[in-house]
Amino acid sequence: MKDKKESFTRNLTPLQLMELDACTQCGECLRHCPVQEVTGRPSISTPEKIRVFREFIKATGGLKARFLNPKVIDRKILEDFTKAVFECTTCGACGQKCAVGIFTQRLWPYLRKEMFDRGLVDYEILTNMPEAIKKTGNPYNFPVEERFKPWFPEQVKVAEKSEIAYYAGCSGVYGAKPMVRGDVLVLDAIGDPFTMLTEDEEVCCGFPLFISGQHDMLEDLTKRLVEAYKAKGTKVLVCSCPCCVNIMSRDWPAFYGKELPFRIRHMTQHVSAALKQRKIMVKKELKERIIYHDPCYLSRGVGVIEEPREVLKAIPGIELLEFDRHGSESRCCGAGGAVRKVFNENAIAIGRLAIDEAVAKKADKLILSCPACYGKVNEAMQDHDKKIPIVDVMELFAQYVERVEP
Ligand code: SF4
Ligand code: SF4
Fold this sequence. Notes:
This protein is α/β, with parallel strands linked by helices and 406 residues long. The protein is 47% helix and 8% strand.
């Protein structure tokens, strides 16, 4: 634990400090918060969290505090704030709507880091993660030898080295097997050789540690993965988990210390490009109304909005419906921020909002593109009175795709 007397500003960039100052408490963002929607509690609201954190800064590092003695902040206030900043799913919807452009999806992990550094976080699911990753390579502590079992399609050949590499990711391999199986089947249909790391080498991308404010291992994890892909001659790293894509493209260069030697691509970007290059096609029809849910870290996070729709619309007969809030305005599925197990009740309630809207719009299927959404929305449907088949975009596409022989 770092010195508790240290300033509350130490983990923030000058821009983030300006953002904290810039919040006018206008409340414009309130209507868009999924956690507020299901809990109705103002303490977790964005302006309230920002107001309280500003108070922490003022009490410990403000002008008065510097001339007189810095105040000791009441433990209960610190604990309440910690809970509020962890109850947030980090979906970023508040930032998307913020009147002064505060990039909240980026701000929350650093406020969480501050509370972690002060020893205020005791959610075991989160605090056990570093040890689990050290031992098994994944934050869930699942056996390393089961990483690629039993979902990996036997008939698919993986190249020893290749310019294209596929990173399956912990949440997919252990919690959304049809999704990663679909990815691999579609990569195989495209026909370009692709490589993968072994089950020992493919460790966590670091996202759960980053988002929960535990940053100590991130440099090591990033360097291990980047060097391993570099040794395989990788030029394009493809993965389907939005959180992996997010940290890889946004943060890995900083943790690696320089530009990555390869590009990061979401699976739907890769497949959309293959469709345009006529490497694959779809002839078989699917006469269904489907609705696609944009994952926060894919749409708001890295701007991948059109490509999943292009892939789905490539299947003839499909009628693509939209949620009222879609694209960069998407409503969180409830699973974000690495706290879906800590605040399970909220996550289930938010997940059910997606199910309810999909059912109300008379969709035949609810299509997802994120392993966290996949696991949580499926869980939210258990014991729910509304039912709809939940399918990952590549799980569906793999059943229809055909290779175009040169
Ligand atoms: S990031 Fe999402 S869950 Fe967190 S406060 Fe903003 S809108 Fe609410
Ligand atoms: S919209 Fe922006 S400025 Fe207004 S209360 Fe929310 S975070 Fe603060």
